Automatic annotation (TrEMBL):
Keyword terms: Heme, Iron, Metal-binding, Monooxygenase, Oxidoreductase
Identification of the protein by name: Cytochrome P450
Localization, UniProt: Membrane
Ligand binding (heme): C464
CDD domains assigned: CYP86A
High-level lineage: Eukaryota, Viridiplantae, Streptophyta, Embryophyta, Tracheophyta
Length: 518
């Protein structure tokens, strides 16, 4: 934080070396004069960073790295949705940051072929190898085609229902009952992460890790995701030379990334080897991609074992963190909006015909579509806290965005999905309010919003293939918990977004549970 006079302090109150005295940036005894850039302002209350000689705008970014998503949102709101960041000299960190829906539509849909993930993205996300998140062109088509074929199979939704309800019955309810009976608080975010990890492992690998059990076992590969997402954000903020040096020295967040990489390999490779000996029978994504690898002659593919590891890890990354993050913020928002919670409970009991028998029952995919107000609440959670906070793009040819910004070939573009959901120009002056009603049409159905306005599941051809699956699973979990338990926030426990690629709650989401009397 800052005090009058411009001196900067860290969160402990200790002074830091860097400060701005109004004349320039001082580091020790040196002072750099300010350099004006288009769109910057001289007023001290501006959020727009100053562009310093040599250092660029990096000092202000580092000062606000503990609240980077909100800081970027403030800048974009002040500048109309698009911001040109200037990095330190010779660090190749210049980039364009945008949350403008017209730019999102242009990049992700209208001019999609000009915006592959690009080489910079692959460097940052190298841990995902040749998985769908890193893939472009022919390889991306293979991933998309294989995944769509799997999800279109007649067995898919039956498998999804069976796997989800089995995990609810054998994992979720026993664990929550245990904490409710003991009267101790529980990290609900951790519970959701374990649930989705077990579920996605079953769908992708046909393997149940049983991380969601009463003793809450420590499984390195399940916890490794938390270290990865924080390290990946730092790779966006730090110069490439710095994070590569940290990786070489095995220090800082890069050390945790290396350890996470090892944990993933030790978990996934043995399952791949075991499945190879079981033949081609069975229905799971791993077997589908093994067959796709064998029948498609894709020149960029390497060893099949590595390809299957990269594929599985990317799908696990999507399945574990995105769904669990949405559920975490949903229940945090409901705790602050009890009237919304009451409306959802009434909908669950009415639409699932639970009021008469007063007895819980599992519901199928078709019945989940009747839970419209719950759907709206989930969309609001996704709008305010999109699990994937930002996307990284690079044009292969020069381009001019609808906002008027010129992009050179291979220049870096960061699209802030977090900021898009918090722009008054996009969602109105009540954009920070939790209002499930904004997702319900006048006829009482679900209101559709274009993906470039609501990019929680990405946008254009790269829209998440598991979107429908995610809503079904989230409704199953949310409805089960809301029907069975009252949730009380733990007093004094601060909940805020984590500074990472995935918008988890920074310190978890600790609550106390009590059984409801129905």
């Amino acid at each position: 934080m800052a005090r009058e006079g411009g001196d900067s302090f860290d969160e402990t109150g200790r002074g830091v070396v860097m400060h701005d005295d109004g004349e320039g940036l001082r580091l020790g005894g040196w002072c750099w004069a300010k350099v004006e850039v288009p769109g910057s302002r001289n007023q001290k209350n501006t959020s727009v960073p100053t562009n310093w000689p040599v250092l660029g705008m990096l000092p202000r970014i580092l000062q606000n790295s503990h609240r980077i998503h909100d800081f970027v949102t403030e800048i974009l709101s002040e500048l109309g949705g698009t911001f040109e960041f200037k990095g330190p000299w010779f660090c190749n960190m210049d980039m364009l940051v945008t949350c403008d829906p017209t730019n999102i539509h242009h990049i992700f849909s209208r001019n999609f072929s000009n915006y592959p993930k690009g080489p910079e993205f692959r460097k940052i996300f190298e841990i995902l190898g040749d998985g769908i998140f890193n893939a472009d062109f022919e390889l991306w088509e293979l991933h998309r085609r294989t995944t769509l074929s799997f999800m279109a199979h007649v067995k898919f939704y039956s498998l999804l229902e069976t796997a989800a309800w089995h995990k609810v019955e054998t994992g979720l309810l026993p664990v929550l009952d245990h904490f409710s009976e003991q009267g101790v608080d529980v990290d609900l975010q951790d519970i959701f992460q374990r649930f989705t990890f077990d579920s996605i492992c079953k769908l992708v690998l046909d393997y149940d890790s049983r991380s969601l059990s009463i003793d809450l076992p420590y499984i390195p590969s399940e916890k490794a995701f938390n270290d990865v997402i924080e390290a990946l954000l730092h790779r966006h903020v730090l110069p490439e030379s710095i994070w590569k040096l940290q990786n070489w020295l095995r220090i800082g967040k890069e050390r945790k990334l290396i350890e996470a990489w090892k944990a993933f390999d030790e978990f996934i490779y043995p399952i791949i080897d075991l499945s190879e000996g079981e033949g081609k029978d069975g229905f799971n994504l791993l077997k589908s991609f093994r067959k796709a690898y064998e029948v498609n002659n894709v020149s960029c593919l390497g060893d099949s074992r590595d390809f299957l590891r990269d594929t599985a890890l990317s799908l696990m990354f999507a399945g574990r963190d995105t769904t669990s993050t949405c559920l975490t913020w949903l229940f945090w928002l409901l705790a602050a909006n009890p009237s919304v919670e009451m409306t959802i409970r009434d909908e669950i009991e009415t639409e699932l015909h639970l009021k008469k028998d007063k007895k819980w029952r599992f519901f199928n995919v078709e019945e989940s579509h009747k839970l419209i107000y719950l759907h709206g609440a989930l969309c609001e959670s996704l709008r305010l806290f999109p699990p994937v906070a930002l996307e990284h793009k690079a044009p292969i040819r020069p381009d001019i965005l609808p906002s008027g910004n010129y992009l050179h070939q291979n220049s870096r573009v960061i699209v802030s999905f977090y900021s898009t959901g918090r722009m008054e120009t996009v969602w109105g002056n009540n954009c920070l309010e939790f209002k499930p009603e904004r997702w319900i049409s006048p006829r009482g159905g679900i209101k559709h919003e274009p993906s470039y306005k609501f990019p929680a599941f990405n946008a254009g051809p790269r829209t998440c293939l598991g979107k429908e699956m995610a809503f079904i699973q989230m409704k199953m979990v949310a409805a089960t918990i809301m029907y069975h338990y009252n949730i009380e926030l733990v007093e004094g426990h601060a909940v805020s977004p984590r500074d990472s690629i995935i918008l988890q709650a920074k310190h978890g989401f600790r609550v106390r549970l009590s059984k409801r009397t129905v």
